[in-house]
Design brief:
By secondary structure, the protein is α+β, with helices and mostly antiparallel strands. 43% of the residues lie in helices and 18% in strands. It is globular, with a radius of gyration of 14 Å. The termini are far apart. 32% of the residues are buried. The model has no long low-confidence stretch (mean pLDDT 95).
Length: 118
Amino acid sequence: MASKVTSRTRRAQRTRARIRTLGAVRLTVHRTPRHIYAQLVSPEGDRTLAVASSLDAELRKDHKATGNVDTATAVGRLIAKRGKAAGVEAVAFDRSGYRYHGRVRALAEAAREGGLKF
């Protein structure tokens, strides 16, 4: 029987293989119970173009609790802002095998509102 982590990484590998064929910039998400992280990765996978997380100083002063939907929304807005500054318009959403629900969904919707297309 596969463990929870093994199943999630297997789902993530399938998604990443599909995104690799598209040749798009990836908006990848990682979440822990306490924090959420987002980064824009180049199509080749060798460079990180922009990073945002619930650990950023500019978010920490406004959000005391970091493992909630409000903070994930703020991280989504921040990654969109930093991505636009880096010249990224369109991305492929890599949810890293997590369900499109809760914090992952909030981050994605905020990034779309911030101007990233996916």
